[in-house]
Amino acid sequence: MVDTPQQGLFSSADSAQVPVPLAAAMRPTCLQEFVGQGHLLSADRPLAQAINRGHLHSFVLWGPPGVGKTTLARIAAQQADARFLQLSAVMAGVRDIRDAMTQAQAEQARGRATVLFVDEVHRFNKAQQDAFLPYVEEGTITFIGATTENPSFELNSALLSRARVYRLRALEQDDLETLMRRALSTQLCDVVIDEVCLQQLARSADGDGRRALAQLELAADLAHSDANGRRRIDQSVIDEIGTGSVRRFDKGGDAFYDQISALHKSVRGSNPDASLYWFARMLDGGCDPLYIARRVVRMASEDVGNADPRALALALDAWQVQERLGSPEGELAIAQAITYLACAAKSNAVYLAYKSARAEAENGPSLPVPAHLCNAPTALMKEQGLGQGYRYAHDEPDAYAAGVHYFPDAMERQHYYEPVPRGLEIKIREKLQQLRQRDIAATFGEAS
Predict the structure, then answer these.
(1) Are residues 153 and 57 in the same domain?
(2) 343 dihedral zone (left: phi>0; alpha: psi -120 to 50; beta)
(3) What gap in Å lies between CA 364 and CA 360, rounded to an integer?
(4) What residues does 231 pair with on adjacent strands?
(5) Side by side, which strands form the sheet with 83-88?
(6) Of the residues 309, 402, 406, 407, which has the fewest C-beta atoms closer than 10 A?
(7) Cα separations in angstroms, 423 against 146, 305, 308, 309, 428
(8) Rounded Cα–Cα distance for residues 264 and 260 (Å)
(9) How far apart are the first and last CA of the chain?
């Protein structure tokens, strides 16, 4: 069983105990009471079946704050009649880990399993994470970790190979409303709330159940008595506590990279409206506009390229405006560049060509520059044949020396750059095809 018993919101009148926060008082004790995460906890899902049967296995719960990671770990331990030990990677040290292992070994000797729950497990270093491995292998503990960061980057491979990863999602609006209505019907049964206010509290919680219940608890403390003597949470209470939403955004975490990825892919997908939305979300979360400006320059080269070369110039201009004028003028210029890139013709031909050329240079031999492409500023170099046979393009018809081989002598001609049939690259494509035909004709003529 779980070591820490559940407590009510308020203690008895003759008790000196401090009231438990509403979020703790409302903590579910079984899966039937759990709100949200249907993709993991529906009756037919493997995790739900394992927990309900009391079949423990090590796993990592990955998701944003306030979605039930700790609660789910507690329920898993309770269903398996296992002892629940909890460590916080923020506070725990080597001694705490050793003490936990000693307790687990004692429980194992008595024939009882132990669930070791490590909150914020990504904050443990590699050596600390490795310390759990032999105990997981031996079955001394069932390891359950909770993290808000991507386990692929934050947890070592040895630990990941021994634990399944389950990704939890931010709670939906309906889930948050369900949580608050449940609290109103049990812990706060003497409080009523206007429906619009309930919805507003749910929206401002931004998918975080703990935040939703904390805001409801604060609102209940400030509730006014209505004509019937009941405490009521109305719009004046909501305005008083100021439920401005704090968006999910971490300048070094998953939310940051997920949102910049969404912005980039919206631009690539030619959707200016979604692009502007993600741009606004990042700014609202506190992202540095200069970071976004730099990424927009990358988008111009990677996804628009020569289909519309003006995109790169516009992106650079927007970056410069942000540097010179700051906000909000700079942000408007970045928005202008983002919408232009989203609407522009798309080509990743330069991006792919550069990757291919880079791979060839990195993986191939260091072939010498052909003699005819070398400079020969001295008499000795000319005597050695450097520069001999070079054809000056401007002296050739249409300023093109047909048939000249510009790659190393031991290397065949390569075609890395293949313009797409969109935007300006339509014309570039046509010209390259004409020049290649002239090369073939010149080469064939030489061979004959």
Answers:
(1) yes
(2) alpha
(3) 5
(4) 191, 225
(5) 83-88, 114-119, 142-147, 59-62, 164-167
(6) 406
(7) 48, 10, 6, 10, 9
(8) 6
(9) 90
Q: Are residues 30 and 156 in the same domain?
A: yes
Q: 67, 337, 314: which is closest to 208 by C-alpha?
A: 67
What burial letters (b/e) apply to 74-98, b meaning 16+ CB within 10 Å? bbbbbbbebbbbbbebeebeeeebe
Q: Establish if 17 belongs to a structural domain.
A: no
CB atoms within 10 A of CB 49: 13
Residue 248 lies in a domain: no
Q: Please list the residues that pair with 10 across neighbouring strands.
A: none
Long-range (24+ apart) CB contacts under 8 A made by 222-226 are: 223/191, 226/192
What pLDDT, on the 0 to 100 scale, is given for residue 247?
A: 57
Quote the domain boundaries for residue 207.
173-241
Same domain, 187 and 274: no
- pLDDT tens by residue, the chain, 448 residues: 344 433 333 333 344 455 778 888 889 988 999 999 989 998 889 999 999 888 888 899 998 888 999 999 999 999 888 889 888 887 877 788 888 888 888 888 888 888 889 888 888 878 788 777 888 888 888 899 899 888 887 788 888 888 889 999 989 999 999 999 999 988 888 888 888 889 988 888 888 999 899 888 888 888 887 777 778 888 888 888 775 555 555 555 567 778 889 999 999 999 999 999 999 988 987 888 999 999 999 999 999 999 999 999 999 999 999 999 988 899 999 999 999 999 999 999 999 999 999 999 988 888 888 988 888 888 888 878 888 888 989 988 989 889 888 889 888 889 999 999 999 999 999 999 999 999 888 887 654 4
For the chain, the C-alpha Rg in angstroms (whole number) is 32
Same domain, 82 and 40: yes
Amino acid at 346: K
Same domain, 100 and 226: no
Check whether residue 119 and residue 26 sit in a common domain.
yes
The answer to whether position 246 is within a domain reads: no
Helix (H) or strand (E) run with residue 192 in it: strand 191-193
pTM, rounded to two decimals: 0.61
Which residues have CB under 8 Å from 394's CB, separation 6+?
none
**Strand ranges for 59-163 from DSSP E:** 59-62, 83-88, 114-119, 142-147
Question: Is 183 domain-assigned?
Answer: yes
Q: Which of 192, 253, 260 is nearest to 228 (CA)?
A: 192
User: What's the full length of the chain, in residues?
Assistant: 448
